[in-house]
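Renewal narrative, Specific Aim 1. Our central claim is that a sequence can be written position by position from structural information alone. The example that follows is taken directly from our test logs and has not been curated for this report. It begins with the structure tokens describing the chain, in the order in which they were read.
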């Protein structure tokens, strides 16, 4: 799989605009500013395939990227306080509509900031994925910002913080060092090969 060939395909600002699935999809979910765009750029070896912003809540649309027989779907970040209620509701409807739809969704990469306990929204999302029987992998972002000891402490705490943690595939990731990228890519390739 040549990751450099990934291309921005299209984006949608409301759920009604999204056409039916025509390819297998892999989605990226997480709260605002958790590092979804940085992760996407790292996977595809690109500096700005997905636009990275210092301002949380920048991705307000569902963005589709295309590579070979797959679509990669960047969902809007959730949980950002400084947007209007109507905007929050629109994002919620977009994310929920997408995840509830009858799509060919093979996997969700659920991103959580490794430095902090999962937020209430993160827990809600993990529970939703479990209840909906949507396969997912948890990606712990910003791993390079923690010392070895802090990582150990966070790993231990996560076992109690995340529902069903012992049964979840968890990957520690850093957009800076590339740690975790190969693991993520091998999961993607497994899905691409099974299509």
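The sequence written for that structure reads:
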């Amino acid at each position: 799989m040549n990751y450099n060939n990934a291309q921005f395909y299209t984006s949608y600002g409301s759920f009604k605009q999204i056409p039916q699935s025509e390819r297998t999809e892999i989605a990226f979910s997480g709260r605002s500013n958790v590092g979804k765009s940085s992760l996407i750029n790292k996977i595809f070896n690109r500096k700005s395939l997905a636009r990275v912003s210092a301002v949380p809540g920048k991705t307000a649309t569902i963005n589709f990227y295309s590579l070979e027989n797959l679509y990669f779907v960047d969902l809007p970040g959730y949980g950002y306080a400084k947007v209007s209620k109507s905007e929050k509701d629109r994002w919620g409807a977009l994310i929920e509509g997408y995840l509830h739809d009858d799509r060919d969704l093979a996997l969700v990469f659920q991103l959580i900031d490794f430095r902090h306990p999962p937020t209430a929204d993160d827990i809600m999302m993990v529970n939703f994925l479990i209840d909906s029987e949507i396969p997912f992998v948890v990606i712990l972002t910003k791993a390079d910002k923690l010392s070895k000891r802090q990582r150990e402490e966070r790993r231990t705490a996560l076992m109690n913080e995340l529902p069903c943690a012992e049964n979840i595939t968890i990957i520690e990731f850093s957009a800076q060092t590339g740690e975790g990228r190969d693991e993520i890519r091998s999961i993607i390739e497994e899905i691409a090969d099974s299509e």
